[in-house]
Structure formats: structure tokens, C-alpha cells
Amino acid sequence: MLFDQVKDLMMETISCEEEKITPEAKLKEDVGLDSLDAMELGLALEEAFSLKIEEEDLKTFVTVQDIVDYLERKGK
Predict the structure, then answer these.
(1) How many helices (H) and strands (E) does the chain have?
(2) Distance separating alpha carbons of residues 27 and 74, to the nearest angstrom
(3) Cα(49)–Cα(6) distance, rounded to whole angstroms?
(4) How confident is the model at residue 19, as a pLDDT?
(5) What is the tens place of the pLDDT at every residue in 36-58?
(6) The overall pTM is greater than 0.85
(7) Around 44, how many Cα atoms within 13 Å sit in the side-chain half-sphere?
(8) Where would I find the H helices in 1-76?
(9) Per-residue pLDDT averaged across 58-70, rounded?
(10) Which of 21, 28, 17 is closest to 7 using CA atoms?
(11) In degrees rounded to 5, what are phi and psi of residue 63?
(12) Shortest CA distance to 49 belongs to which of 73, 15, 25?
């Protein structure tokens, strides 16, 4: 499942606790993502899913589900 892949990647990349990562979790408020974390996560997503994520697209991610939806739209 795509959500599980994203969750695992987030735990590895930004050292976030698993229970904080839910589809509706807000990246900044709930997960604690800062701008550096966002860039690192973006790079990890690009590598893991073999795609290019534009910086403007990264800025539109508010929840974990936003990331999953984006990857689904990109066909990953």
C-alpha cells in the first residue's frame, strides 16, 4: 500500500515516530516537519519513486495523505 511506503520513508528520513504518521496528520503541526525536513523528504520521495517533485508541489503538501494523493496522480 502506498501509504505504508510513504510512512516507512518518513520514519527513515525524518526520524518521526510511527504513531504520529496517519493519513490525516498535518506535516508541520502533527509530524513536526520543518523546511529542512521537507526538502530531505522530497529528495527521498524522488529517489524512492523515481520521479521529480517540483518545489512548488512540495509546498502544497499539508497532510500525509496529500503526499499519497500526489504519488497516485503521478502513477507511482
Answers:
(1) 4, 0
(2) 20
(3) 10
(4) 95
(5) 999 999 999 999 999 999 989 98
(6) yes
(7) 18
(8) 2-14, 35-49, 55-58, 64-73
(9) 96
(10) 21
(11) -120, 170
(12) 73
- With beta carbons less than 8 A apart as the criterion, state whether 49 and 71 touch: yes
Ordered domains of the chain (ranges, CATH): 2-14+23-73 (1.10.1200.10)
φ, ψ for residue 37 (rounded to 5)? -60, -40
Alpha-carbon gap, residue 29 to 50, rounded angstroms = 28
26: left (phi over 0), alpha (psi -120 to 50) or beta: beta
Cell of residue 53, nine digits: 517533485
Give the amino acid at 62: V
Amino acid type, 1: M
- Judged by phi (left if over 0) then psi (alpha if -120 to 50, else beta), residue 75 lies in left
**Spatial separation of the C-alpha atoms in residues 66 and 54, rounded to whole Å:** 14
